[in-house]
Design goal:
This protein is mostly helical. The protein is about 80% helix and about 0% strand. It folds into 3 domains: about 15-150, no CATH class; about 160-355, Methane Monooxygenase Hydroxylase, Chain G, domain 1 (Up-down Bundle), CATH 1.20.58; about 365-395, no CATH class. The mean pLDDT is about 75.
Length: about 400
């Protein structure tokens, strides 16, 4: 019975993974059935494409499904041309893989989809290739990708907004725990090795920022066109995503400052306790903000927590000013910078700083969009380049 319960727990503790596996299997089975109805032996290609395209979010599946279809079409067209010139063989396969990889890179599909596109194209031009077969397999690719996009809506137990809350809360909790650890270390008298470990942990937190930003962007994009999503909630979560990004950057700066202080001999004994209190107040404020977010995704900020942070910071400034004649000036300056970092964390939690609302928040980076330029803008760009190579007398016709 214990072994049975352990096996059951392996699945119940991984609900999101189990749901994605079940949805992927259902999408593949449905694609197989519809593909077989559409064409003889058309279900295999549709099922493979559906399995490759299903993602845990509708946004990503739509993006990669579009890229899968377009990239495969380019690869299949190139393959048919290569077959007519060289016959089916190594040259055709090599040219197809190269062209699909170039197309996937040009559309910024990412590492996974850049592999899936040439794989799908090779399936399309597989044994028995002819123009008619390739056309049928292309339609099967369209069927598989379309079904994957539809099923992706059910691939995760939470909405994009729910996933955004989870990721912001997870990153905020880690930042609060690191500040708490640094507070205890400063109070006890930390070593350079301990400070180095804090800095390494802070760098790992920074690496999580792009994932949170992408998820918050997905929630906002999803809310714009899906009728059941709340736009106000999505916009608030996006702002919280920006706030946690600013917070984590300040946490890393604090870790770097403490490391530099350890290299130069450590923080003066007279200010250790007050710096530890300030770090502890910041840790408590962040963890409390995370708890409020998890209880109510639309919960606002808590002014009292950030007010306590600023009060401890002001007391630290007074202490540093009083101690400045007797202590190392460089260490005093580093300690002063900690107060600035803590104030910025408070501003991020309040979302009251002009850096939060007066600066335009960037959307998805150009390098990560499926198409960096819209088709119309891309067409105008090609037209301008084409006109440049024409004789002047012919340019007026273009």
């Amino acid at each position: 019975m214990k072994a049975m319960r352990r096996v059951i727990r392996l699945f119940t503790d991984r609900r999101a993974w189990v749901q994605q596996v079940v949805v992927t299997a259902a999408a593949a089975a449905t694609a197989w059935q519809i593909g077989d109805i559409a064409f003889k032996n058309g279900g295999l290609v549709a099922a493979i494409v559906a399995s490759l395209t299903v993602r845990i979010s509708l946004h990503k599946s739509t993006r990669e499904g579009f890229g899968q279809i377009l990239g495969t079409a380019i690869g299949a067209g190139t393959a048919l041309l290569s077959v007519s010139l060289f016959g089916f063989g190594a040259v055709t396969v090599g040219v197809t893989v190269v062209m699909c990889s170039v197309a996937a890179r040009a559309m910024h599909l990412g590492e996974v989809a850049s592999i899936n596109v040439p794989v799908t194209a090779l399936i399309v031009i597989g044994p028995g290739i002819s123009e008619n077969n390739a056309q049928n397999r292309m339609v099967s690719t369209l069927i598989g990708a379309s079904i994957a996009i539809l099923y992706s809506y059910f691939a995760h137990p939470k909405t994009p907004a729910g996933r955004t809350i989870d990721q912001i809360a997870s990153l905020g909790t880690k930042a609060a725990q690191l500040l708490g650890t640094m507070s205890e270390g400063v109070a006890a008298g930390f070593t350079q090795r301990e400070a180095g470990n804090w800095l390494a942990s802070a760098r790992l937190l920074i690496e999580e920022i792009p994932r949170v930003r992408a998820q918050a962007l997905e929630a906002r994009t999803y809310a714009k066109w899906f009728p059941t999503a709340e736009k106000d909630e999505a916009e608030d979560l996006y702002s919280r995503g920006v706030a946690i990004e600013h917070t984590v950057v300040q946490v890393r700066t604090i870790a770097r400052t403490l490391f530099d202080s350890a290299v130069e001999g450590g923080i003066p004994d007279s200010t250790q306790r007050k710096i530890a209190e300030a770090l502890s107040a910041a840790s408590f404020a962040i963890s409390s903000d995370v708890e409020e977010l998890l209880k109510d995704g639309s919960a606002g900020d808590n002014p009292q927590l950030t007010a306590d942070m600023r009060l401890v910071g002001a007391e630290l400034v007074d202490l540093l000013i009083n101690e400045s004649p007797a202590e190392d000036q460089e260490q005093i300056a580093r300690s002063m910078s900690l107060v600035t970092n803590l104030d910025r964390i408070a501003d991020s939690l309040d979302q009251a700083s002009p850096a939060m609302f007066a600066v335009e928040t960037p959307t998805e980076p150009q390098g990560q969009k499926v198409l960096s330029l819209s088709p119309l803008e891309q067409g105008r760009k090609w037209r301008r380049n084409f006109r440049k190579v024409l004789p002047k007398k012919l340019r007026k016709y273009f």
